Amino acid sequence: MRIAVSQFSPGDDPVANASALVEAAAAAARDGADLLLAPEGSIVSFLTDPAAPGRAAQPLDGPFVAALAQASADHGIVIAAGTFVPDPESTRVHNTLVVVEHGEVVAAYRKIHLYDAFSFVESDHVAPGTQTPPIVEINGVTVGFATCYDLRFPEVFRVLQTGGAQVLALASAWVRGPLKEEHWLTLLRARAIENTCYVVASDQAGRAGIGRSAAFDPFGLQMLDLGTADQGCGIVDISLDRVAEVRRILPSAQHTRFRVDPVPRGPMPLPDPLPTAATRPTPTPLTTPTPTGSPSKDLYPAYQGG
């Protein structure tokens, strides 16, 4: 199996963003890819405009997903990309990862972990999903999908691995900030090693995203890093023999001593109401201890994302 990893910075026009992904799908298909993996929220630029998802949101049968579905049929390739879908029960939207194949939507994952941390509250504009992330078989390989902040919750990926996933695919919009690239690459590698799966991740670049779309093999060896380019595409070849070899050497999945529950629970109650954008206090910078021979670094918890 071959995966094309798309890295780009979506603009304000969903039509133009869909066209960019259609072009990327055609190029990926020419390179022999079975799957094109695109970033979270590919429909619109939203990292610096939290209200943008509400303005750009479309139903799953809207023009953005329809364009991707048609491209999947035209070029014989599976496409996974992030969009925003209106929530019928509120004025918010669902951060949704769609997977299209042969012109049809075969999976639509509503992000269950919303980034309500530090000074950013994703749930101001996004409603959480309630369903387990999907696993899709693509050219004989089982691929489990997740979105951005899910990366910080290892149980998500253990559920996917227990469900048979051999590849873990992440669509993300990981925002720039102190140590953010280190977190990103460390967590991607950890998810690969602890689950003995390939991990492939597509990330937004541009003004706010870190880029650094990457891939790791089941032993944690890095296979891809697209750096900080505003637009790019990398190819990752998946070997099921490699998965089997690593799982033979490191059979950690067989040594699990805790039950894996595939049913997500609802959000935990918070001790105090989350502040709104208007009442949220200005965060106080945190300072890391100064290592010997190294300058001190201030960590500002006000950054968004991941």
Overview features:
6-stranded mixed β-sheet, 23% helix, alpha/beta, 6 helices, disordered C terminus, 306 residues, 25% strand
Task: Explain this structure.
The protein is an alpha/beta fold and 306 residues long. It contains 6 helices and 16 strands. A 6-stranded mixed sheet has the order 5-4-3-2-1-14. A hairpin with a 2-residue loop joins strand 4 (93-101) and strand 5 (104-110). Helix 1 runs parallel beside helix 3 (63-75). The longest helix is centred in the N-terminal third of the chain and has 17 residues, at 14-30. The two termini are 28 Å apart. The model is unreliable at 288-305 (pLDDT under 50).
Distance between the termini: 28 Å
Q: Based on helices, strands and strand pairing, what is the structural class?
A: alpha/beta
Overall morphology: globular
| Radius of gyration using CA atoms only | 19 Å
Average of pLDDT: 89
**How big a fraction of the residues is strand?**
25-35%
Instruction: Figure out the total of helices.
Output: 6
Number of strands: 16
Major beta sheet, specifics? 6 strands, mixed
- How do the helices and strands follow one another from N- to C-terminus? EHEHHEEEEEEEHEHEEEEHEE
- Largest sheet, order of strands side by side? 5-4-3-2-1-14
Low-pLDDT parts are: 288-305
Q: Could you estimate the helical fraction of the residues in percent?
A: 10-25%
